[in-house]
Amino acid sequence: MLFDTHAHLNATQFNEDVEQVIERARAEGVSHIVVVGFDRPTIDRAMELVEQYSFIYAAVGWHPVDAIHMTDEDLGMIERLAAHPKVVALGEMGLDYYWDQSPKEVQKEVFRKQIRLAKKVKLPIIIHNRDATADIIDILREENAGEVGGVMHCFSGSIEVARQCIDMNFYISFGGPVTFKNAKKPKEVAKEIPLDRLLIETDCPYLTPHPFRGKRNEPSYVKYVAEAIAELKGLSFEEVAQKTSDNAKRLFGII
Ligand code: NI
């Protein structure tokens, strides 16, 4: 039983074979998948997938890279969809100072608007952070985002930052990078942070774990993330799979 908490089966890379990809995930013991939407087309596609598959859930939000294009209508659409029983979180949202395609001030405003909406509709949030840790932490504090909590998706920060996030009612989620030989920081954090605050994800089609690094990622590979964490913590694969799955269900309110 594995819970992939962050998958983009709504990406065009899966247009040709999403059914087979989902079948492979089921065959490898993936019991739940959250498909994350981040703009109009990916939100629409995520909502199609939740109607087709009982074990697929959706998160809906607006990506910081594209923040400059979010309109009031888009925010209204996200609010309407938040009432759907299979929408379990808002996001992904956050700040991305690496691509820098939207001005920082616009990104911050779009991030704050989505946090406020999440508090209004009482859903947890999925945070995307690239090279923006200090501003993310400040905004989460200022907006009192701990009221809804959520997940720091594909976490790559330090143990200190991970602890700050946990103190604010957030879970730490690891993906493919924790399996990379040269990924010192994620390995240290995965080893140190208590299992009851950890989640696993693929972020597919990106960030493919070892031994498939460089190929298209898919939810069936989430087992490699669980294996890496089990090895780092000296626990069994089954325990990591079960506990991270329990954590995800608790966070997303899935029975
Ligand atoms: Ni993502």
Automatic annotation (TrEMBL):
Any one GO molecular function term: metal ion binding
GO cellular component terms listed in the entry, alphabetical order: cytosol
Binding residue positions for a divalent metal cation 2: H128, H153
Transmembrane region(s): none
Broad EC category: hydrolase
Signal sequence segment: none
Pfam family, one: TatD_DNase
Family matches, as PROSITE patterns: TATD_1 (PS01137), TATD_3 (PS01091)
Assigned keywords, A-Z: Hydrolase, Metal-binding
EC numbers, comma separated: 3.1.21.-
Binding site for a divalent metal cation 1: H6, H8, E92, D203
InterPro entries (UniProt xref): DNase_TatD-rel_CS, Metal_Hydrolase, TatD-like, TatD/YcfH-like
Alphabetized PANTHER family for the sequence: D-AMINOACYL-TRNA DEACYLASE
Record-given protein name: TatD DNase family protein
The organism of origin for this protein: Anoxybacillus mongoliensis
Upper taxonomic lineage: Bacteria, Bacillati, Bacillota, Bacilli, Bacillales
